Structures are given as structure tokens and as C-alpha cells.
Amino acid sequence: RSERHPSRWLYLGHICTVFRSTLLGMHALWAQNVFSTELRDAYEELFRRTSGHPINIDFDRAVRPSQERIDFATKHLERSRIISTYSAAATCAFTRRMLSAGSSFPHLESLILHPRMALCREERVMADETMALSSRAYHAAATSTPRLRNLELINIFMPFDASTLTSLTLIRTPESATPDMLPPAPFLDMLLRCANVERLQLSHWIPQLDAAVTSCRSRIVLPALRSLRLDALRSRILSLWSYIKVPASTIIQLSIPNADTF
């Protein structure tokens, strides 16, 4: 989309004062491009031109963001409408900020955290610290994100309220060093809040559902679900399947390790 490429429209501001005035008044346009890779060193000026409009914090997956860009984004995280990063350093900084006491993100609609870039020694220490949140995060109160619709967490976990979501992706790569996923009870409580979710992906995220935990529960109904992808051991998929109910029209994709086929 051309609005995400400032080089295609920025020159319009040099044609005449009318065009320049019009362009400067398009605050939503500047807000989408504060962290554009085409204007990598101009993020402070671009931020000033947003005039308070919710911003996109979208770090390109192919470019490692500088610490200055990460610090600036973290400082203004509450103003974000979209957060998307593939940097471990940015993921750590953003997660810490979002989990801090009293944090609220009233504009946030999409959150994608995927720390897949190569880590230097300092970043690996930060990443290990943040990844460890998954062992205790379900005890914490979810960060306030009343408008959040899309959530993707890859090899990381933070508490969230699934009741506002329409798309949820939770991925833990088998080779990752992250701790195990949520225990059965909070995992099922999370699914119970997914009544509005239309697209759900759980990759290596399904815990071993203990009969003692699930015996007193009724089946979890996911009435809005259109697409479901499950990547897990056969036993875990079958166990989960016995506790959820999805529409007959739901498109289902299953991925089972080669050593654990039907």
C-alpha cells in the first residue's frame, strides 16, 4: 500500500504550499509511518507531525532496529495502535513496559511479538528474562487493551484478555528454549474467553489436560471460529478436542509430529 511508503507521496509537499499544508494535516498518515524504514532517522519529526494521533510501531522484520528507535518507541508505547516487532531487544522492552503497573493501551488494535532475529549476548540475557514470564504470567492481571483485536505471540507470553480478540496466534517453536506453555486450568480459562475469536492458531501450546482439572468443566464453545490450526502431539490434540465445540463450517488444520502420526 502506497501510504506505507513515504517515498511515493512525500514529494507532494514540495509542489506548493496548498499540497504541503494538506499533507501536514493528514495526521493519521504520519502516524502510520513514524517508524518507516524509508525514513529511518526521522522518527522524532514524524512523531511530531502525528499531532497526538495513535501511531503504528512497526519494525521491519528484515532490519534490526537501533536502540535509540526502540527506546523512543517504548517511551510512547501507550500511543500505539499497532505494535509489530521481530527484534528480541524490542520485544523485551515492549513486554516490560506493557507489564508495568498501571499501564493502559486504549488505542492498541494489533500486537505482534516475534523475537526471531539473531541475539547478541546482552539481548539473549534480556530475552531469557522475558521468556521466563511464561511460567508465572497467568497469575498476573492482563494489561488493559480494550480495543485489541489481533494478537500474535511467538516464543513469548504475556497475560492478556482474550474476550476482545478476533484473531489469536500462540506459537512456541519446538527448538525454542522457552519454558512450557500455560498449565491446564489457566489455558482453558483463556479459551473460555475466546467467544469472539474467528481465527485461532495454537502451535506447541496445548498442555497435557489433566482429567482432574477438566472433569468439572462443560465444553468450551467457540461460536465465531472460522479457522483453527493446531500443532501438537496427537494425544494433546485429541484431549483438547473433547473439551471444545466449534461450528461445523470451521476450517481445521492439524499438524502432528512425524513420529506421532495416526
Report on this structure.
- It is a single chain.
- The protein has 262 residues and is an alpha/beta fold.
- 28% of the residues lie in helices and 16% in strands.
- It is built from nine helices and ten strands.
- The strands form two sheets. The protein has an eight-stranded parallel beta sheet with strand order 1-2-3-4-5-6-8-10.
- Helix 5 packs parallel to helix 6.
- It is elongated and about 65 Å long.
- The relative contact order is 0.08.
- The model is unreliable at 130-136 (pLDDT under 50).
Strand portion = 15-25%
Poorly predicted residue ranges: 130-136
Using the CA coordinates, give the radius of gyration: 21 Å
| Class by SSE composition | alpha/beta
The helix/strand series, from N terminus to C terminus, equals HHHEHEHEHEEHEHEEHEE
Helices, by number, come to: 9
How many beta strands in the DSSP annotation?
A: 10
Helical coverage, percent range: 25-40%
Can you list the strand order of the major beta sheet? Answer: 1-2-3-4-5-6-8-10
Net shape: elongated
Terminal-residue CA separation: 44 Å
Specify the biggest β-sheet: 8 strands, parallel
- Average pLDDT rating: 80
